[in-house]
Structure formats: C-alpha cells, structure tokens
Amino acid sequence: MKGYRLVGLALGLLLGTWGLVIGCRQPESASDGQGVPAEEISLTEEEFARAKQLFFNYCAGCHGTTRRGATGPHLLPEAPEGSTYPGTRQLGTAAIKAFITNGTPGGMPDWGRQGILSEEDIDLLARFLQLPPPPIPPMNLEDMRASWKVHVPVEQRPTRPQHNRNWRNFFGVVLRDAGKVAIIDGDTKELVSIVNTGFAVHILRSSASGRYFYSVGRDGKVTLIDLWMDPPQMVAEIKSAYDARSVDVSKYKGPKGDFIDKYAILGGYNPPHFVILDGLTLEPLKIIRTSGYDVNEGAFYDEARVASIVASHHDPLWVVNVKETGQIWLVDYSGVAQGKVSIDVLKAEQFLHDGGWDHTKRYFLVAANNKNKVVVVDVQEKEVEAIVETGRRPHPGRGANFYNPTYGHLWATGHLGDNTIALIATDPGPNQWKVVKKLELPGVGGGTLFIKTHPKSRHLWMDRTLNNDPELQRTIYVFDTETLELVKELKIPDSIPKARAVHLEFNQNGDEVWVSAWGRKDDPSTNALLIYDDRTLELKQIIQGDWLITPTGKFNVYNTANDIY
Fold first, then answer.
1. Helix, strand or coil for residue 349?
2. Alpha carbon of 18 to those of 14, 15, 127, 140: distances in Å?
3. What residues in the chain have per-residue pLDDT under 50?
4. What pLDDT, on a 0 to 100 scale, did the predictor assign at position 7?
C-alpha cells in the first residue's frame, strides 16, 4: 500500500478505513489563500503511522487528538466557522515547519531548535497536519479488562512497611521518555526503586493513606505502586484509555463512610471518559463518557476530554473537569458498591485545564486557560462561586496557597501567555475571588508551567519552562510571600547543558525545594534533580545518573496525599 492515495473524506468513510488513510489528494481548486494552488500532500503508510505517533507525543496535549484545539489553536486542514486561525492547508508546509522549529512566545515549544524533533520529523508533521485527523476509537470495559493485571494480590502485600525509611518523604520522579518512575528517599537522597510505568507519565497521585502511588501516562495506563514493599514496586496496572492526563483516589472518611483508598478514578483524553476503578486492585468498575454540549455556544463535542480530577477531603466526591464543554462534574462515589454514581453537572467555562484547592479545601480553582479565566467552585454548596479574569492562558498546576499580611490568604497562578503571576484573594470580604495583585517576571512572554509554596515557607517558587528564550527556560524565580518582591533568580548550573527548569516540589518538612533540569533523553549529562535550601535559596545538592532520563514532575508523598501546595 505504499504511496497509495485516497481522494477526499467521503471515500475514506465509505471504505470504513479512515484510521488507515495514508494520503489525501486535494482538489485542483484548493489554494494557499494567496491564489497559489495548494501543494499535494501524500504520505506512505509508514509515514502516516510515524507522523500520527509524533503528533500524539508532542502536539495532542495542547491541540487535541482530533485537532480542534484547546490550550493551543486548532490544527485542522480547513478553519472551523468562526475561527480566527487559518486552516493548516492555508498555512502550508513551510509556515507550519517554522512554528514547530522555533516555537512562539505564547508557550509553543521550540521542538526543532531544542533538537528534540529532527528536520525530517518536522517536515513529516507539517505534511501530516494538512490531512484530516483520524477518528477516536472506542474503548469498553472488556478492552480494559484485557489489560488489567494484579501482580501482587492485596492479601499478599505487607501489613507494615518492609523497610525503615521515612516513606512519607519519598519523592516519585517521572522519567518521562524512559516510561518509568523513580522512587527517591527524600531524607537520604538515595534512589530506592525504579518502576516501569508506561509512556510519558503525566502525574502521580498519592493514596489518601500515602501508602500507594497512582501513576497515569499519555498512553492511558494506570499503575499502582506499593511504597511499603522493599523495594517499592508495581502491584497492579491497567490501560483505561488511549491517552490520559489525570488520576486520583477516594480520600473521604467521615459520617458518610470510610472510603480511604477504596476507589480510584482515571480521566481520559482519548476516549473522552472517566473510569472508576477499585483503589487497591485497579479493577475497572464503571465507565462514564463525557461528550456533550459546551456551555457557551451549545456546540456538541465528541472529544470532550477530562483535563483534571481532584478528590474532596470533606465529602465522597471527585471534581472532574471537562475541557471542551466547560462543564465541571461533581461525582459522588459513595454508592459505587451499590452500582450507583450520582453526578452534579456545573456550567463553568470552556477549556478547563488544571487547578487546586484553596487553603480551606472547600473551594476548587481551575484554569479555563484558553479563555484567560479561573473558575472557582464551591464544592460544599455544589455551585460555581466565581469566574475570575486573569492573565493570558493561566496554567497553575495545582496553584499555590499562602498568607500575605496585606491581602490575607491568596491562591496564585502563572500563565503560558504572559509574564505575570496572578494572586487571587480567597478570604471572605470585598476582595474575595478578585486578582488583587500581579507579580511581573523579567523578560518577554510567559511559559510558566508550575508554581509552588509550602505552609512552612515564606517563598513562592516558579519556572518558565515553555518560554522560547533559552535563558528564561533555565531560570527559577523566587518571590517573598510577605513583601511580594522578587528575591532571587536561580539558574541551572552551566555544568548541566541543554536543560530547562521544570516543576517544583517541596519536601515533607517544607525546607527543601526539588527542581527538575529537563534535558535530552539521549544524554544523561543534560538531566538532573536540583535540591535547593528554601531558607538560604542556595543549591545544596545535585542528583544525576544514567538512570535519570528526562525528569519532569516530582511528587512528595506527604504533600500530595494532603494537597499541600
């Protein structure tokens, strides 16, 4: 089938083989928008498969599996009605290659300039993006059960820790391109274990007890890691989506029941659904699809992706954020054992992404990043409390909570699209749910992915990972939470070349900050974990090794289990 061409979408659908379409010949009337006939795009079967994987690895997270856009603009051959962005056929191969190579100040990574994508890869992607996207295949419980494995049954797991380490201060470190998670002792800084987890783990979540790590990767695979074992190891796994970003566990214990570690939940990008799992075995129990109508125009989104999930500490609830529709689902899991799941659907704002609790853990703040807003949800009253205008494309991670003597309790977010940090007041009063101050970062453009503090710290830490200035990518910024002044700019040491700073995490005691130097997967010298003293702001230790491949997120057991950020 090499070199075979199909003419038009209709034929592909009639043949029922659109997922295998390997070429598209445009009508002779097609043009690049300037009266010049558009180039003919043709890919071999091998090229199409390669390009599809590249898109999944590097593009789908921001632009969507079906390329309708979210954090980033659409990447469809023809611009949808009302879009301010042209279609990829109008842009043409040369322009698309330039974007992929150089990035943009608004947060588009410079994949070519970094050397992550080759010229051949970039050319292939640029041509692939001018073809219609393949559809999303379904996934049912039977498909999931085929991948479900319990490596160590519950009854065979230890009843107490098999080691003498302070496991509550363990760090789970994502080794992104290696498809692994490293478990590091936060007290001794020793590597304790490396667990094979799957492609591009996005997050780790601690169980409510802290005993387990749940990981979820871009391949939709969930793994359960038992930290009491010596060494810690994977005890169960399941593939519950083809692409996923979120996982969490039941954290409630109170009058409505004891649900500590009882259930887990996976949120899917592809297919767009969430899956309730047994918390100790990962057995799939229930699938709920999230396709629906958006809160603004009422357009139907089949690809309505689950962007983030958090577990309430005060009720048996998960907060499920559906990106494209702008709906926030409050999922009551107390009746799962009886086959019941009750859901309250709140209308919020489109393009929901990530967020975190305020200091009371009553209010959840989530970025609607392509709308330049943060939505505040009162989980106790089950209503949208406020929608706050922020800067351009907020990206808080979990955000950061701290007390300021002037403004009271604040929740902070950085932005992908501008160089500010928005501080939102959370205490009752006239300023509640307002941006009371914006901190300005040096340089042009945004690219802040993560921001972090700790109740025992008076510092607010942040990165500039996705800024397209190589110097800003390597810089960590520290503000004083009382004066709100920038107190220090920290640089990745010159001994660690070609790396960018990404993701910050405190230790259990709140006196150390761990930062990833995220480099190339084929060069261990460009990768490291940097450990800073939060009081002196000095670099105290560098962790490197051949095993440390593309470290990204780091998750401290105690802080993650208790939602401390």
1. coil
2. 9, 7, 17, 21
3. 1-37
4. 26
Cα–Cα distances in angstroms (integers) from residue 202 to residues 194, 198, 418, 496, in the given order? 16, 10, 24, 24
Q: Where is 471: in which H helix or E strand?
A: helix 470-473
* 9-128 CATH pick, 2.60.40.60, 3.30.2310.40, 1.10.760.10, 3.40.109.10: 1.10.760.10
pLDDT digits (tens, 9 = 90+) for 137-152: 889 999 999 999 999 9
- Residue 38: its pLDDT value, please? 55
Instruction: Please answer whether residues 305 and 286 qualify as being in contact, where contact means their C-beta atoms are separated by less than 8 angstroms.
Output: no
Distance CA 182, CA 189 (A): 12
Q: How far apart are CA 319 and CA 317, in angstroms?
A: 7
Q: Among 528, 490, 488, 534, which residue's Cα sits nearest to residue 510?
A: 534
Question: CA angle 75-76-81, nearest 5°?
Answer: 110
Q: How far is 146 from 484, CA to CA, in rounded Å?
A: 53
Task: Give the span between the Cα atoms of 245 and 305, in whole angstroms.
Answer: 9
Domain segments of the chain as ranges: 9-128
Cβ atoms of residues 26 and 38 within 8 Å: yes
* 8 A C-beta contact, residue 224 and residue 149: no
Sequence-ordered strand ranges (E) for 90-143: none
Q: Kindly state the tokens that stand for 26.
A: 């445009």
What residues are annotated to the active site? 59, 62-63, 108, 353, 395
Per-residue model confidence (pLDDT) at position 132: 92
